[in-house]
Each structure stands twice: as C-alpha cells, then as structure tokens.
Amino acid sequence: MRYVAGVCCLLPLPVLAASGWDMTAGVTDISNQVFSLHRTILYICIAIGLVVFGMMFWSILHHRKSKGAVAANFHESTTVEIIWTVIPFLILIGMAIPATKVLVAMNDTADSDLTIRVTGSQWKWHYEYLTYGDDKDVGVGFLSALSTPREQYERQAGGFGSSNLPDFEKHPNYLIEVDRPLVIPTGKKVRFLVTSDDVIHAWWVPDFALKRDAVPGFINELWTEVPAGKEGVYRGRCAELCGKDHAFMPIVVEARSDAEFKTWLKQAKVRAAEEAKAAAASVDYKFPSLDAAMKEGEAVYTARCAACHQVNGEGLPPMFPALKGSAMATTKTRLGEHIDIVVAGKNAMPAWKAILTPREMAAVVTYERNAWGNSTGDLVQPAEMVK
After folding, report:
1. Is 226 exposed, middle or buried (0-12, 13-18, 19+ CB in 10 A)?
2. pTM of the entire structure?
3. Taking 60 as the threshold, does the pLDDT of residue 79 lie above it?
4. Mean pLDDT over residues 190-194, rounded?
5. CA 158, CA 161: separation in Å to the nearest integer?
6. Is the per-residue pLDDT at 253 higher than 90?
7. Phi and psi dihedrals of 331, rounded to 5?
C-alpha cells in the first residue's frame, strides 16, 4: 500500500483528483476552502520533500567516497542552527495562517437563517427544525433511519457473489438510503446543533465538509450553505464507531431551492399536526383482540426495537438485555414496569413517548409479552400508555 501511495503522490494533481484518490471538493464555499487548504498544504509538503530529498541525493552523489570526498569536521555551527530553526518556523507560520482562517470560518455559525437540532441515537438520526427566519418555533421534527429492511441486509451472509446480494447497478444507494431525508434550502445559512441520546456518534456529510461529534449532554455547532443552483441529494454517514449497527446509520440531505423548501416546510407542518392529532386520537383506540395487537406490535418491534433486542428477542447482553424469557416480560405483576421503560426509556433506550404513538407503544409491549414463547396473555391498550 505504501508503494501505491508513493506513486500517487507523483501524479499530476488533475490526474490525482480524477482518479478518486484526492479529497472531495464538495459543493459549498467552506468545502472549497477546505479543499484549497488541502492543496496548499500538499504543495508545501511536496516542495519540502523535493528540497530535502534533492539535497540528500545531491550530497550522496557529490560527496561519495569514490570521488575522494573528505567529510567536514565542524561542531556547533550557529549559522546552521539558526537556519534549521528559522526556516521550519516560517513554514509552519505559512501553513498556520490559511488553516486558522478556514477553521474560524468553519465555526462561525452567526447570522444563520435556519437552525436544526441533530440528535444521534442507536442507530438513527432525529432532526428538529427549531427556527427559520422570523418563525421562532417551527415545530417540525422526525426520525431518519435506514430504509433497507433489516431482514434483507441481515441475510447477506453469503458475501460477494452470493445470490442474496442485490444488483448494485440497479440499486446504487443500497444501505445508504433513508426513509425520511433531511431537507434544507439552498442559498441559506443552515446552523446545526449536534448532540446524542446515548453514545458518541458523528454527523458527517463530505460534500459539505461537515463532520462533528454528537456527544451525550453536549451541543456541538456547525453550519453549511449550499449555493443556489446546487440543488440535489447529498449523502453521508455516522463517522464514529457507535455500536453493532454503526454501518447502518446513513445520512441523506436534500438541498432544495428556497421556494421548494418553503413548500415542503408547509407540508411538513401539516404532517406534524396530523401525526400529533393521530397520536392523541390513538389513546382512545382499543385493540379488538390479542392477535390484532400482536400483528401491529410485530411491525413496530421489527422497525424500532429489533436493532438492539434482535428479531428473535434474545438481545445483546449486557448492553441490550434479552426480552425472550425475561422476568420483566413474562411476569404479570411487572407489566407496569415494562410499560414505564417503553414510555420513559432506560439507559441507552430512548423515551419512545416522543417517537411512537400510544397505540404503537401498546402494540409493541403486547407483542414483547406474548412473542418468542412469552405467553402472559396481556393485551395492553393505548390508554394504559399515558397514565
């Protein structure tokens, strides 16, 4: 690998960029500044390498023993020491000035037009639109998770060449597509507040030159501004090892024109209001039978819970306890404890009351108490989830 890297360093920069070995130039002004900084530092490093190795090889050739060269004998040359101190100092200053300018620009989140809170969870992203222009309470939020069905990618155990693998030419976005992408306007400065519910994640979109750790209990800021005319879909992923499904936590950002974004935001507000209304109405719903609740609960469990507790309910102890045969899920007197954990969360498990409707929570609790050989016979109704 080191020989390949060495050969690539000798390629002309346009060839290097076209080959895919170079950095991503990106679409934003900041990403272009980062790319230019990368090129500047690369030129400096190449120049240093040429000078150092040039002098070294010249010295080897012209002061070799076969030519009768005699080594000089001197010690504590003040001039040499000044030279090899001053020149690296000047080089470092020359590299630090442009780097500092870019770092300051990257962290300047002032005068933003749109503020979005990004919360990482195992293993999905929660986006909340906080402010947009004069609207100081947008009230739109949703989860964004991998859209590939879990049972599909968990079957890909045969490796490449397996008949189970998809046709990647027909599905170029396999495992990097989400159910609800983040939508932002072009030509507007978008500020992100990045945090986490559980472990450390990292929100990373290469085309924007954005990468910031999502740390529980802390808010990290970053921003972007996609130029008008650069509308499109930009992809990224969690860049911090955050658990067993770290590889299945993609990021998809749709950049739309300001007019299209405003239209989308209006529709998102309507959808949010309808979801809130449906959640409120679901409290009064009653499952007609245990089978009906089990069928609905299985769908919710597979989509929301199987990542941690596994499809078979056996979990990944000790981090994610088993539900199959567990005392909590099989003891009738612990039904209230079971409900409380689903509603309010515990440890790495989020509070599902902010994500699921009472009907969905009741269905999944019913499913967990009657699946995999758990046979309590408990039929939990939505009203029990809001007590």
Report:
1. buried
2. 0.76
3. yes
4. 96
5. 7
6. yes
7. -105, 120
Q: Which residue has the tokens 């020149």?
A: 87
Task: Place 16 in a pLDDT band, splitting at 50, 70 and 90.
Answer: low
DSSP code of 195? E
Pairing of strands 182-185, 114-121: unpaired
Statement: residue 325 has pLDDT above 80: yes
Please tell me the predicted confidence (pLDDT) of residue 25. Answer: 84
Please measure the distance between the N-terminal and C-terminal CA atoms of the chain and give it in whole angstroms: 61
C-alpha dist (Å) from residue 37 to 5, 17, 75: 20, 15, 39
Choose among 86, 159, 150: nearest CA to 309.
150
CA separation for the pair 283, 235 (Å, rounded): 38
Could you give the CA distance from residue 308 to residue 292 in angstroms, rounded to a whole number? 24
Closest CA to 251 of 127, 161, 337: 127
SS3 342: helix
Q: How long, in residues, is the chain?
A: 387
Which residues are CB-contacts of 379 (< 8 A; sequence separation ≥ 6)?
287, 289, 290, 293, 366
Coil, strand, or helix at residue 9? helix
Question: 36 near 101, Cβ under 8 Å?
Answer: no
Give the angle 298-301-305 at the CA atoms, nearest 5°. 160
Neighbours of 223 (CB within 10 A): 23
Is the omega angle on the peptide bond into residue 216 within 30 degrees of 0, that is, cis? no
3-state secondary structure 196-227: ECCCCEEEEEHHHCEEEEECECCCEEEEECCC
